[in-house]
Each structure stands twice: as C-alpha cells, then as structure tokens.
Design goal:
The structure holds two protein chains of two kinds.
Chain A: E1 12-17, E2 20-29, E3 33-38, E4 43-47, E5 51-58, H1 67-70, E6 84-91, E7 96-98, E8 105-107, H2 112-115, E9 122-131, H3 138-153, E10 157-161, H4 167-177, E11 178-180, E12 185-188, H5 201-211, E13 219-224, E14 232-236, E15 240-242, E16 251-253, E17 260-263, E18 266-269, E19 281-282, E20 290-294, H6 301-308, E21 313-318, H7 329-337, E22 341-346, H8 359-366, E23 370-371, H9 377-390, H10 396-401, H11 414-417
Parallel strand pairs in A: 6-9, 6-10, 10-12, 12-13, 20-21, 21-22, 22-23
Antiparallel strand pairs in A: 1-2, 1-5, 2-3, 3-4, 7-8, 11-19, 13-14, 14-17, 15-16, 17-18
Chain B: H1 7-11, E1 14-22, E2 42-47, H2 60-68, E3 71-76, H3 95-107, E4 111-112, E5 115-116, E6 119-122, E7 132-146, E8 149-160, E9 164-169, E10 172-176, E11 183-189, H4 196-212, E12 223-230, E13 236-241, H5 247-267, H6 272-276, E14 281-283, H7 294-301, E15 305-311, H8 325-334, E16 340-343, H9 354-364, E17 371-377, H10 379-397, E18 403-407, E19 413-417, E20 425-427, E21 434-435, H11 438-444, H12 452-463, H13 467-475, H14 479-488, H15 492-510, H16 516-529, H17 533-546, H18 550-554, H19 564-578, H20 587-594, H21 601-613
Parallel strand pairs in B: 3-10, 13-18
Antiparallel strand pairs in B: 1-11, 1-12, 2-3, 4-7, 5-21, 6-7, 6-20, 7-8, 8-11, 9-10, 12-13, 14-15, 15-17, 16-17, 18-19
The chains are: A alpha/beta, B alpha+beta.
Chain lengths: ~425, ~625
C-alpha cells in the first residue's frame, strides 16, 4: 500500500478524487492538504481525506530542480575591450525565486540568469548574502562595504542586487563609507520577481550594469524610470527614496532630478557627479546607537524619553519646517545637556528645515537641537551612524552639517517638485 | 454532415469544447468596472521574458512567443488601475465572479473543489501585462444532458480575460486594457461530442446554464468558444470561434486540411529524414539586386536579406489543387512579422522572373520533385526562422498535428502557436488559497438555474409567449434581457418580439449596434410614457439611424403618436382621393405611407370602419 509519505516532489502519480482517477505530478503534502499538478498544468490543493493515492507511476527527483535551474552563474572570462562589472547578490525580490513547495517567494543563490542578457559587458557574480532587505543591519553594511571594495579592486564597477525596501538606507550607508572609489557602485532591485515574464529585474539589471561601466564615482540606485520597459533611472543614493509600495518606478530622487538614465544600450548622466578616483578608500565603522522618531500629535513625553534613552544620536522627523510639540522641549534640553545629539529633519521630505521662522523652532535651537537642512531622514540616520563610528565626538555636528556625498542640496530648484510649469 | 472525402478520417473524429463566458459585474482581481468609455488615459510599453516553470523547464509555447520578442504597447483607459498595469499585486478574488462560477459548476453537476488554487498560465505574447493569466479550477467531473446523451464536463475554471488586441505588426503589438481582468468562466468538456451539430447543441446547453444564472455579460465578444478536435493525428485546439454557427465550418475546414496533410505526408514520406536534419540555407540577396519584385525590393530597402532553401520532395505540394504546405509555412513566418515568403509552386510570379528562378533553381540544385522556398527577413531572425520552418515541416510530415490554431471569421483556421504544455503553469503566490465551505455551496443551491425545458415552459406561461418563441429566447441566451426589459416595460410579448426580431433587423439595416445601457434606458422611457409598440419601434429606428440617445429621441416630434382626430383626417383624405382602391386589407399600409409618425393600427382600423360607413 503506497502512502503520501512515500512520494517525493516531481513524482508522476495516479490518484482518485470524487469518483474519478487522475494522473498528475506530486508537488507537496502537509497535514491536511495534498497538492498535485494535473497534466494540463493546474495545481489542485485537495483535502487529504478526500483524495486517495492509487500508485506512483514514476519517482521524481527530490529537489525538483532541473539542470536549467541548477545552472550556476558562470563567470564569463574577460575579453579584450569589454568592461568588467562585478555583481554582488544580497537577496531581495530581484534575486528571488518562487519556492514551489511552499508557494512563497524567497531569495535565491543564483543571479547569473538575470545578467545573461547583457552581452556587451563582462560580468562576474558572487552571492554575499541571502536576505529580504527588511532584515538588513549595520553589521551587514560593513560586511557589504568590504565585499564591494574587493570587487572594485578587480573590476571596473560593482552592481549590488538588493531588496528594495531598505535599498536607500543600504546604498546611503555604503555611500558614506566610501570616501573614494575606483568605479561606480550601483544598487539595483526589482518590484516584480524574476519568475514573471513581466519582471523588471532583467531590464533594471541591464541598466545597472551599464551604469556601472561609467566614471560615476558615487553610489547610485538604478530602477525603472516609469511604467514602461524603456528607460532606467539612476538616483543618487543619498537623495533617493522608495515612494511607492508596488510600482516599478517606486524610487524617486527627492529634491533633485535623477543623476542619469539608461535607454537602448546607452547611459546619459545629466547631473554633476563625483568622478571615479584612484583607490577604494573605506571607513568601515558604523555606530548603531542612533534612533529615529516620527513626531505626531499626542506623542507623550514618556514615550519620547523612552526612545531617546541610551542613544548617542536621535533623528527627529518633525512637522513642517522642523517642529515638535512644546511639551517635548524640556526633555530635549535635558538630553542634549547630557551629550545626546538630537537632529532635526522634516516629515515633508521635500524642502529644508528652518528653525528660525517660528518660536517653536527658536526654542528647539535653544534646547540644543541640530537642524539638518534638507537631508532625508533615513539618510541622516545612517550618516549619524557613520559619523559616530569614524569621527571624534567634537566633530559630530560639523560633519553632520557638512555635505559629504551630495546628501544636502545646496540650491533647490522649482521644477523638481513640479507645479511651476 | 461533413463532406469529408475520406470515411476513415471522418470516423475518428473527437470533439471537445472550451467555452468562455465573461462575467458582467466588475473585474476579477481589482474593483475596476467591466464597462468603460473609449477615453484613452495614457500608454506604456513592456517586453516579456519567458522564464522556467516550477518543473524547471521552459514551456514550448512560451519559448516560441519569447523568440518573437515583441514589444507590447498598452492603452490604458478608465476601467483599469495599477493591477492591470502589473504595478500592484492582485486584490481579493471578486465575490460575484466566484459565485457565478460556483453556480455554473453546480448547474453542470460538477464536484466543487474544497480549495481554489490560482495558477499563473504563462503567456508572453503580450496579451497579459503580467506575462501570465491567472486561472483556477473551481470544479471537476460533471456532465450536461444533450439529446444524444450526456457530455462529460472536465472542469469549470475561473480566469481573467486577456487584453484586447488593437493592432499587430512591425514587431509591436498594441493592446487595450479595457478587457484585461474581466472574469471569465471557462467550461471544458471531455471529447464526448459526436459531431459538429452535437457540438452546437452542447455549447447551447452549457451556455444556457451560465446565462440563466444572470451573471453573463451580454456583448458581442462576451461568449467565446475554443474547439478541440482530433482525427487521430493529435489534438488541435482552435481558439476564437466567435459564433456557434461557425463550429461546423471550422471542423469541416480542419478535416480537409488534415486530409490534405496526410496525402502530402504520404507522397513525401521518403524525404522525411531530410527535414529532421536541417537543410542548407543560402543567402541569395545578391541574385535579386535588380529584381522587379516589389516585395523583395522593399525588404532589401530596410536592410533585410533574402534567403533560400530547398524542400526535398515538396514540389507541387506547396500550393496546387488541395495541397497547401505553403500556407502552413506562411502562417508560421507571419507570426514573426515576416511578409516576404515565396515558394516554387507560385514562381515565376509576384514580379520574380523566369530568368531569376532558373538561376535560383540551379543554385539550390532543385530537382523536379523538389520545392524551393524564398524568404526575405532581417538577418538576425533568419536562424530562428529557418529552424522553426524545418521543425514545423518535420512535425507536420510525421502527422503530429497537435497545435493551437485560430479561427478566422470565414471558418478557416490558421496556425497560432505550438500546443502549450503543463510547464506553462505555476502557482499564483499573491492570491491565497480560497477555502470553499459546504455552507457556501449549500447556500448557492437555491441560485442554480432550472433545467432548460422548465425555464422554457415558465417563460411561456408567465409571459404568454409561444413555446417556439420561448425556446428561441432561452437558447439564444436572452432570458435575462427579457426579464429585465419586461420589468421596465410591462408588455413581455412586445419585448420578446423587439429583441428577437425588430432590433436585429434595425441593427442590420443601419450597420450599428444599440448598446445595452441605451436599450435599458429606452425601455424605461417606454414604460414611463406607456408607449405603444409602434412608438417604441420608431424610437429605436431613430436612435439607430441617427446614433442618438434615448432621452434625445423621446422628445422628437416624429415620435408623437397620431391622435384619433389626426388619424381620422388622414383616412378621410385617403378615401376622398381614392375610395375605390382603399379597403380593410391595405388601409394600414396606406396610412403608414402618409405619415412618418407612429399610430395604433387597431385604432386606425376602427376609425376606417367608422369613416367608410358614412
């Protein structure tokens, strides 16, 4: 008597259901459900007590992966004249595949299949992590920075495959850690997993790889520029933000236009940028003792104090020009006196904080708060980790206010926000 | 009966149907409406990439589509949102669509599955923005009664409709998103159907249940059927059969096509090995530099090259008498956007001269029994194209005729793509498995339509229609329409006559269709104003001839019914001018001639009788 526990994934089986016998491929079985694939391709999830296994026609292979899937990313050997770009996979949707046993999308080890379509650039790939990006940590950024340095030392540019959720945080962290770099560092992700024919992974990767052959000596994020598969936009990491949960063109440059675009095989860089340098210089330290507080009406003093306790620096996302309720000001005064660095950014994302316009702002200045102009809150967070990790405490405020990687826009132009045309 | 010349092939016929019904009330995975205006909001473009399935291999239909690597352009209108643009995961399955599918399943005596598991059916021709169609089996293993026995139902599925093709050509397909995502109930039968007439009867019997449940959309392309037919040489799936009346023609066309292919196969069987290995292909562009052929010249003008190859044993089989191997290949290359294909059975011709072909024959070493193929295409395409040509030839000559074809409006069919395999499907991970409880099913039992005969006698009884009229209403899926319009305008006999006879005649006369919302409004007005039949018919005439809205028409002078006094005036005048020629039989026609306005015929007769007595 054959039993479901005897069947392995991919086995051809005969089973009976509702008085009929069917042939199919066994996919999965759990406590109360059996999943089988019919010959027409449909999966059926049948209640285990209603379906009977008649026989196993042919035993399947345990892992269910074919030669095509197992094909590892072969490093193409360099040929004369072609640029060489190294790819680092960290996980995320772009490197994800469907797990057919559980039905879930999970990160894959193999990213070669995505870059196979790029023929005019030599690529080599390495998997350095395998996570969904919400699980990223400062320790992983430090590890990532080292891996990027190593790959830039042996190639013309580096593309980092990364989940989109925290890609701006990671790319900004890498941006601060590299004070000089020999090639572009381009982060790339996708909003549609690569198992789908409509996936943006392939074109995003193609754009990112081409961006990585230029003399862009900064860290960028390359993603779809609009809903069409026609152009890829590159955003300066420290001015980028994921602004949509699901669209291909979720990433936007905030307060400036995109740095460049890729379309039909060629890259155009339209904003001024730092050129590639002669060495890969990193400061691989981050101090994670920083918190971020989104101010909201009714935020209590008790909660606020809980969130700043034991932190070396706190980024506040204030309202409008950079305000919080008057009730919090005594706590801020006390904390700054004790040496906690409290910095102000705005929930508006667009525009600068300015603490000189309203009395609340002036009171906050007196309380010891440091305004960060138009720096994005998430960028301020990783920058604070970087500055705390690598500079003396006396330098903190000066370094935070200095425009290190383009994180501060010196002259904000009208058209970027729209409404002026 | 089919005029098959060959009893053997005819006797092996097996027919199955797949019938698709659009559900009318909103899309399947978002809350966009089914109907829309023609307003265009914006366009976007995508390129599809075929990827391996869960079984690790790439489906041949998907691979075939990808090799064509077409650019798809999408026109977004008002009934689409981020879900149709593939910019947002699907929302929950629409409850009304699911209910419709469950009721259809119960009506067709199927076993409803406990768990509804949506799959992604990979389609990379661009007709779905995601590159796949979401589809789930709702129920299995049912039957429908016909006059020639039960036809088993394999499955009832619920899926999303594809985008509507607007234009195709030059490596680009343009689709409208208005249809994308409309729920489709797909009902597939086992190959139990005996012949083409039985196929029509079966389609009507199935259609009845879906339509009677009241969820079916009532527009021109709302019901589509695919015909699966086999004569022993593999299953041919014929998509897009728009009308039931086309089914016999489509089957007859396929029978003679397969007979012809079998003869070709027998005649050329000794050469089969030739097609299994790929024959040599020559670039013969230079031989045609000075040609007079417009097709070849325009191809060379855009940088295409001209290739030729020999087809052993195919002389006279490409196109002569009933042999049409040429069309089989032309259908294939057209799918790659290639327009310049010639073969030796039609040369010299099309501006290609005797001298040119003599040189070509000697270059390709053509023997009498051979054919030569001449193709103009982009150099980048030539390798894939000839590979496809030789593999299609080998497949056809081995009488493996399994493939997906498409039905043209005249009942002929053409090659669409290889038959998809199970590799084409993988799980839709964004839609959770839906549990269907026994309670849900039980509650729906009450909504299952009555059998067709009972509905016919019910209509006949409730509306006072003849049994014949009631049958026509039911079998042409108009019961829901009759119910709805009769509730607005309480003269069901007039409604029945209007939708069965008057409206089709007027639509034919003016070459345009009266849209459903306008029709509904017309009957609402007719009900409010208590119009007589003649006024209603006149209003419909005015709407169709002038393309007007019902409310605009309702106010027209021409529509006001003749009063008794006005009728009397006309009749008196008629009698005065030609009393001897006017009688009871022609009076109505004569009054009609005198006026463009509607009148009550019975009233006119009464007036005539009273006037003529004087």
């Amino acid at each position: 008597m054959v039993d479901w526990t005897d069947v392995v994934f991919g086995s051809a089986i005969k089973f009976s259901y509702s008085g009929m016998e069917y042939e199919g491929i066994f996919i999965h079985c759990d406590n109360d459900m059996v999943t089988v694939k019919l010959s027409n391709g449909y999966n059926l999830a049948l209640q285990k007590d209603q379906v009977k296994l008649v026989k196993i026609i042919r035993k399947g292979s345990e892992n269910g992966e074919s030669a095509a899937q197992q094909k590892s990313a072969k490093n193409r050997v360099g040929s004369v004249g072609k640029k060489h770009v190294s790819l680092l996979a960290t996980g995320g949707t772009i490197a994800s595949k469907v797990d057919y046993k559980t039905g879930a999308v999970s990160p894959s080890e193999d990213i070669g299949f995505i870059s196979d379509r790029v023929k005019d650039v030599e690529v080599s790939s390495e998997t350095i992590d395998n996570i969904l990006s919400e699980n990223i940590t400062p320790e992983k950024w430090i590890y990532m920075a080292g891996k990027i340095r190593d790959s830039l030392n042996r190639s013309d540019g580096c593309v980092v495959f990364h989940g989109t959720d925290t890609m701006s945080y990671s790319a900004s962290a890498i941006s601060f850690m590299f004070s000089d770099q020999t090639g572009p560092i381009v982060f790339v992700g996708s909003q549609r997993s690569s198992d789908r024919p409509s996936s943006d992974a392939f074109m995003n990767a193609e754009g990112a790889i081409h961006m990585a052959t230029t003399d862009f000596g900064e860290v960028g994020i390359a993603m779809h520029g609009n809903l069409s598969d026609e152009s890829i936009s590159m955003h300066r990491a420290v001015r980028s933000r994921k602004m949509h949960t699901s669209r291909r063109d979720a990433f936007r440059s905030i307060g400036e236009s995109e740095v460049g675009t890729y379309s039909q095989g060629s890259v155009r860089l339209t904003l001024p940028y730092r050129r590639t340098g002669v060495k890969n210089d990193i400061k691989p330290k981050l101090d994670p003792s920083v918190s971020m507080i989104y101010f909201y009406p009714s935020l209590s003093v008790e909660d606020f104090e809980g969130m700043i306790a034991k932190k070396k620096a706190v980024i506040i996302m204030g309202t409008g020009l950079g305000h919080v309720s008057h009730s919090l000001i005594p706590s801020i005064t006390r904390a700054t006196k004790e040496g906690t660095k409290i910095l102000m950014t705005s929930q508006c994302l667009y525009g600068s904080v300015n603490l000189n316009v309203y009395s609340t702002g002036r009171d906050l200045v007196r309380a010891g708060i440091i305004p960060l102009r138009n720096m994005l809150p998430e960028v301020a967070l990783v920058k604070a980790m970087y500055v705390l990790g690598n500079y003396a405490e006396e330098q903190f405020e000066e370094m935070m206010k200095e425009n290190l990687r383009g994180e501060i826009i010196e002259r904000e132009q009208a058209l970027v926000f729209g409404g002026a045309d | 009966m089919l005029e098959g010349t060959d009893k053997g092939l005819r006797s092996r016929i097996k027919i199955g149907l797949e019938i698709h019904f659009q559900v009318s009330d909103g899309k399947l995975f978002c809350r966009c409406p089914t109907e829309t205006t023609s307003t265009e909001l914006f366009r976007f473009e995508r390129r599809m990439i075929a990827t391996a399935s869960e079984m690790g291999s790439m489906d041949r239909a998907a691979k075939y589509e990808m090799e064509r690597n077409l650019l798809s352009e999408y026109v977004a209108g008002e009934n689409s949102c981020l879900v149709e643009y593939d910019e947002e995961p699907p929302h929950e399955v629409d409850g009304k669509a699911l209910k419709a599918a469950l009721i259809a399943s119960l009506a067709l005596n199927c076993k409803v599955l406990d768990n509804i598991f949506f799959m992604r059916k990979v389609v990379v021709d661009g007709s779905n923005t995601s590159g796949f169609q979401r589809t789930a089996i709702i129920a299995l293993n049912g039957w429908v009664a016909t006059s020639r026995g039960k036809v088993r139902i394999s499955s009832v599925s619920l899926e999303e409709d594809s985008a509507r093709l607007l234009e195709n050509g030059d490596g680009r397909s343009i689709y409208s998103l208005d249809r994308l995502g409309i729920p489709l109930i797909e009902i597939a039968t086992e190959p139990d159907i005996i012949d083409e007439h039985h196929a029509v009867e079966t389609a009507k019997a199935i259609g009845y249940f879906v339509q009677a449940s009241g969820f079916s959309r009532m527009t021109v392309d709302a019901i589509r059927q695919d015909v699966n037919v086999s004569f022993g040489y593999g299953r041919v799936e014929i998509k897009g059969v728009q009308k039931l009346s086309l089914i016999p023609e489509v089957i007859s066309y396929e029978l003679s096509r397969q007979e012809s292919l079998r003869d070709i196969s027998e005649k050329s069987s000794q050469y089969l090995d030739f097609y299994r290995e790929e024959p040599q292909v020559h670039d013969v562009t230079d031989m045609f530099r000075d040609t007079g052929s417009k097709v070849l010249l325009s191809n060379m003008g855009v940088g295409n090259r001209i290739y030729s190859t020999i087809l052993r044993g195919m002389g006279g089989l490409m196109k002569s008498g009933k042999y049409r191997m040429g069309k089989e290949l032309a259908d294939l290359v057209r799918r790659y956007g290639v327009k310049g294909l010639f073969h030796s059975d039609e040369l010299p011709g099309y501006g290609i001269t005797k001298e040119e072909i003599d040189r070509l024959w000697s270059k390709t070493k053509k023997a009498d029994e051979d054919a030569v193929l001449l193709i103009a295409c982009p150099p980048s395409l030539s390798e894939v194209l000839f590979m496809e040509i030789f593999s299609r030839m080998a497949k056809l000559l081995q009488m493996d005729l399994t493939e997906t074809r498409f039905a043209a409006d005249d009942g002929s069919t053409f090659f669409l793509r290889p038959m998809p395999g199970r590799e084409r499907m993988y799980p839709e991970t964004d839609v959770p498995i839906l549990r269907i409880s026994d309670v849900t099913i039980h509650a729906m039992r009450n909504d299952v339509p009555l059998p067709m005969e009972e509905t016919i006698s019910m209509i006949s009884r409730d509306y006072g229609l003849s049994a014949q009229d009631a049958y026509v209403i039911v079998s042409t899926f108009r019961k829901v329409q009759l119910d709805k319009l009769s509730s607005l305008y309480k003269h069901p006999k007039i409604v029945a006559r209007f939708i069965m006879q008057t409206l089709p005649e007027l639509e034919k006369k003016y070459g345009r269709k009266l849209e459903q919302p306008k029709l509904t409004r017309l009957f609402a007005i007719a009900g409010e104003k208590n119009w007589i039949r003649e006024v209603l018919e006149k209003a419909a005439d005015l709407m169709l001839s002038g393309g007007l809205d019902p409310d605009a028409v309702a106010g027209e002078e021409e529509l006001s019914q003749l009063s008794e006094d006005e009728l009397r005036e006309i009749i008196v005048k008629l009698l005065a001018s030609s009393e001897s020629e006017t009688n009871e039989r022609n009076i109505i026609a004569r009054v009609k001639k005198e006026t463009g306005r509607p009148f009550d015929a019975a009233q006119a007769m009464k007036v005539y009788k009273s006037v003529s007595k004087i």
